[in-house]
Design goal:
Blueprint: E1 7-9, E2 23-31, E3 34-38, E4 44-48
Antiparallel strand pairs: 1-2, 2-3, 3-4
Length: 71
């Protein structure tokens, strides 16, 4: 469960290299499935809840989002 005021990391995307281990603090909820977050520099972002690593499911570190290259 994602909670207000707590810090979370983003899930990884399979097939996409990302070394970002930055934490985002939840500062608000936009609607049922999106959250407003702030990083350590004070920048704000809106993410879908499913992209944050839930502490109750720490093994789920990959998102279901898939990037495909079009050639």
């Amino acid at each position: 469960m994602i909670e207000l005021g707590k810090k979370y990391r983003l899930k990884k995307i399979k097939g996409f290299e990302s070394y970002d281990s930055e934490y985002y603090k939840v500062i608000g909820f936009d609607n049922f499935d999106t959250v407003i977050c702030e990083n350590t520099c004070g920048e704000r972002f809106v993410f879908m809840k499913e992209f944050l690593i839930d502490p109750q499911k720490p093994d789920e570190i990959y998102s279901d989002l898939i990037f495909k290259r079009k050639e």
